[in-house]
Design goal:
With 618 residues, the chain is α/β, with parallel strands linked by helices. Helix content is 41%, strand content 17%. It folds into three domains: 3-222, Aminohydrolase, N-terminal nucleophile (Ntn) domain (Glutamine Phosphoribosylpyrophosphate, subunit 1, domain 1, 4-Layer Sandwich), CATH 3.60.20.10; 235-537, Rossmann fold; 549-617, no CATH class.
Length: 618
């Protein structure tokens, strides 16, 4: 998996800046705890932190290819290419000779064969930088769905880049970290605009994008985007095709030279991944699959249904594990309490992993703790992330009011997990005009939607809804999963983000995706033979959030301590009267969601200003 960074400067000799490159690389030690490497030439420098997954001995980076003693190209690479074995065979037939078993070398050789169009040939999750020593040109490439992050910062003489903002900020050329008005808007709007990176001057390579930097400057292009096509298959064929794709995807994503497991919540998505993986391992005689879930002390016994969750996870996890008993699944529950979630060191680690106050409160903290516990047993985990965006699983997909609300449907449904805007003062809110910004971004996104000639009514609208989720919503979830997992050196693979599956299901008619009157009808039918009836019939339940009253009390106490300390860096932006009134109210007299979301936002934002020395300039 790994963390990457680099630096291109046509105005100086980078060989004199080894310490700076080392500092940039070191910021990502959590992403790559197994090894560190740098490579420097006069105008191109690459850094790498390695999490060893495939070819432990031979996959060291940055990787260089030479010919007659001359460097042709150097690569720093993060991710996994799942079709690397087929590509290796094809490239060998074209005359390339390999010295390792790693997918890294396949990517490097693919560049030598296909140049900047190599992304067209890759299936996987990846972000990488290639320095072509022959042309003195840098190529930055990101996977189609944006599973792996990749940021860059143009400079007068080149560019800085890294897996995370912290790698770029470690270079003085990036200057002080400043957040201007649009950066604040992005923090507040709960919509991830492609290419925006919050910090002034910083950008993110768009999913499916290529950024090229040479002496003539910086150019961008996209090698992949969602396209609308006629769906040629009937319902039985579509269900069989979905299953066939899932079988192939899981088979590919089980390749690993280190221990592998699955994340299991008892929902349809994670249960499908777990069952498919367990079956594939059994068929190949590769032993048992380990699975892990997160739970909170007393959560199941005291569970109270809310607007998003009808049921707790634990009973369904047990049903699935018992159902797969013949496959030999070994399951472990990671049980947390409010003390774990409020641990100052853990909360600081979560912010450090995020780089931004865009977290989702206890749901980030618990995910980080879950991944930290898993990392003691496994290095790779399979996740059910993104199935809801691909197959139409969220409740608001099926609510006409939110579908037709004229904004992003998850916002119309009231989905807000950290609500910093609730505690900002009126002057700041007036300047930012969040409703206006949201409306602008919404219409920009709609303008991108690939239309199908002749499509109208509900089918056309649901194509728009699917597009919004696959380009504006899922990115927030993939960012969260990447940061929390890589913060502890765990690789998480997301089978439902395979671009072949995404393209196929995106173009299936909405009537087919809901043919049985339920959400995710195609997925449920495709894996019906693998899962117990209870899991198949379970209604969508998002990742759990603690319901322990002690957690809200601890948040209130923490906010009170912050106010009493007189060290509120965010104070010029805040409505202090409103905040004090909020924490003075008896617990339970105000909606827990609103209070918790506002307090989570305040605490995280203030910590971010302090730890990252951020200046807000509106």
């Amino acid at each position: 998996m790994c963390g990457i960074c680099g630096w291109v400067d046509f105005g100086s000799d980078l060989r004199e800046s080894r310490d700076t490159l080392g500092n940039m690389t070191e910021t990502m030690s959590c992403r790559g705890p197994d090894d560190e490497g740098t490579w420097i030439s006069p105008h191109g420098a690459l850094g790498h932190r390695r999490l060893a997954i495939i070819d432990i001995a031979g996959g060291r980076q940055p990787m260089v290819v030479e010919e007659d003693g001359q460097v042709l190209a150097a690569l720093t690479y993060s991710g996994e290419v799942y079709n690397f074995q087929e590509l290796r065979t094809e490239l060998a037939a074209r005359g390339h000779r390999f010295r390792t078993r790693s997918d890294t070398e396949v990517v490097l050789r693919a560049y030598l064969e296909w140049g900047e169009h190599l992304g067209d040939h890759l299936n996987g999750m990846y972000a990488f930088g290639i320095w072509d020593a022959r042309s003195e040109e840098l190529l930055l490439v990101r996977d189609r769905l944006g599973i792996k992050p990749l940021y860059y910062y143009p400079t007068p003489a080149g560019v800085l880049f890294g897996s995370e903002p912290k790698a770029i900020l470690a270079n003085s050329l990036a200057g002080e970290p400043v957040v201007e008005a649009d950066g604040m808007r992005e923090l507040l709007v709960f919509v991830k605009t492609p290419e925006y990176a919050i910090f002034r001057g910083m950008r993110e390579v768009r999913p499916g994008g290529v950024v090229k930097v040479n002496r003539d400057g910086l150019t961008k292009r996209r090698y992949w985007w969602l396209e609308s096509r006629e769906h040629p298959d009937d319902l039985p064929t579509t269900i069989r095709t979905v299953r066939g794709l899932l079988d192939d995807i899981i088979e590919r994503q089980l390749i690993s030279d280190v221990p592998l497991c699955s994340l299991l919540s008892g929902g349809l998505d994670s249960s499908a991944v777990t069952a498919l993986a367990a079956e594939a391992l059994r068929e190949h005689g590769q032993g048992k699959l380990r699975s892990f879930s997160v739970d909170f002390a007393g959560y199941t016994e005291n569970f109270s249904p809310d607007a998003m969750r009808d049921t707790p996870d634990a009973p369904y996890v047990r049903d699935l594990v018992l159902h797969l008993e013949h496959h030999g699944v070994e399951h472990t529950d990671i049980v947390l309490d409010s003390g774990d979630l409020m641990d100052p060191g853990v909360r600081a680690a979560v912010l450090r992993a995020r780089d931004l106050p865009t977290g989702v409160g206890d749901m980030d903290t618990s995910l980080y703790l879950l991944f930290r516990a898993i990392r003691a047993h496994s290095t790779v985990a399979l996740s059910g992330e993104s199935a809801d965006e691909v197959f139409g699983g969220y409740r608001w997909f099926h609510d006409p009011a939110t579908v037709n609300a004229g904004t992003f449907p998850w916002l119309a449904a009231g989905t807000r997990l950290v609500a910093l805007d609730e505690v900002l003062n009126e002057e700041v809110l007036r300047r930012l005009d969040i409703p206006g910004y949201r409306d602008k971004r919404y219409h920009e996104a709609l303008a991108e939607v690939p239309r199908l000639p002749g499509e109208s009514g509900l089918e056309a609208r649901m194509r728009e809804i699917s597009y919004l989720h696959l380009t504006r919503f899922v990115q927030m979830l993939l960012d969260r999963k990447d940061r929390m997992s890589m913060g502890v050196g765990l690789e998480v693979r997301v089978p439902f983000c395979d671009h072949r599956l995404v393209e196929y299901v995106f173009n299936a008619p909405w009537s087919m995706k809901t043919y049985d009157g339920r959400e995710k009808s195609l997925l449920r039918a495709a894996v019906a033979d693998l899962l117990p009836q209870s899991v198949l019939e379970r209604r969508k339940s998002p990742y759990p959030s603690t319901q322990d009253p002690a957690y809200e009390k601890a948040l209130r106490d923490e906010v009170a301590r912050l106010l009493d300390s007189g060290h509120v860096l965010a104070e010029p932006l805040l409505d202090m009267v409103k905040i004090r009134a909020m924490i003075d109210q008896p617990q339970g007299t105000v909606s827990r969601h609103d209070v918790r979301a506002a307090m989570e936002g305040l605490l995280q934002f203030n910590s971010w200003l302090e730890r990252y020395h951020v200046r807000v300039s509106l």
